[in-house]
Amino acid sequence: MRNVADSPAEYERKVSTEEVSDQAKVYAARMRLQNALDQADALDAIREIAGNLIGTEEVGVFKVDKKLSKLWLYWSLGIDPNKHAVLEVHREPKLKQVLKGKAVFRPRMPKGNLLTTDDPVSALVPILVNGNPVAVIVLFRLFPHKPGIEMVDREICEVLSNCAGRAVEPYHALTQAKLEHES
Amino acid sequence: MPKKVLLVDDSATMLMMEEMILKQRTDYECVTAKDGLDAISRAVVEAPDLVLMDVVMPRMNGFEACKRMRMEASLSGVPIILVTSRGEEEYVETGFQSGCNDYITKPINGSELVTLLQSYLGQ
To answer: What tens digit of pLDDT does each residue of A122-167 get?
Structure first.
């Protein structure tokens, strides 16, 4: 980010603006998801966040079965849905990690892909409801001018993980899950 | 008097983010519109000093809105910056042909955005 011609003050100003920018992205993502009206709007929020804040227009949301053995494609954007209809957890070691509740990101200089597909996968993000994974957001290819997943993208993915439950669970199910979790 | 920037996007997320960055890092006043058609009517009423506009929007996209703004006498000289997810030469060329002054690619880098706007509006 630093240009050799930047004075120390200019460099400091840029860094400070970057911090504001990152905070704005995370805040906007959280607000958009928390204010989603229904499932369709929450899925639209995921599309907006992926395209505008992270930098990908290739996204899949996969629902997890109760045994945590299979994921099936629930909603997608910019990918071939037939090619990614089902993900078998026993064939995808990274998914096991994700189903423990932690997102997995593709390193900038990867030796392999995150899933056994020829489409590059940039991130696997669990959607958690009361700490339990109910779905996984797969972020595929990033925009060509985007070099890789950055720190702010990881923070946005954390927001997705914690606030996108409405995209896959109807409101009454979320409320019920919350009540069960609290009791 | 603060400079006025018209932010145009159908995404509430983008508008919120852009507005937050500009409010915290500049003295510009922000007004918003949710698509190209809305942008033209807002621009005529608000007389912004600069328009920052998304390309892909319902009802009227950014290229078309840009062309129409250039046909409005009061808006013909207003700097228009297009926000695009694609930086390919052909796509950018279409933007310039529609009359835009500049473009910025998504995801927006806050520092780049502020520097770009200041190059047109000053600090």
So the answer is: 999 999 998 899 999 999 999 988 889 999 999 999 999 999 999 9
Angstrom distance (rounded) from CA B21 to CA B29:
12
- Interface A–B counts its CB contacts (< 8 A) at 80
Q: Is B118's Cβ below 8 Å from some Cβ in A?
A: no
Q: In what order do the strands lie in the sheet with A70-77?
A: A86-88, A70-77, A59-64, A132-139, A123-129, A104-105
E strands along B29-106, which residues?
Answer: 29-33, 50-54, 80-84, 102-105
CA distance, residue B116 to nearest chain A CA (Å): 12
Q: How far apart are CA B110 and CA A12, in angstroms?
A: 14
What is this structure's pTM?
Answer: 0.89
Distance from CA of A17 to the nearest CA of B (A): 5
Asked casually if ipTM beats, i.e. exceeds, 0.95, the reply is no
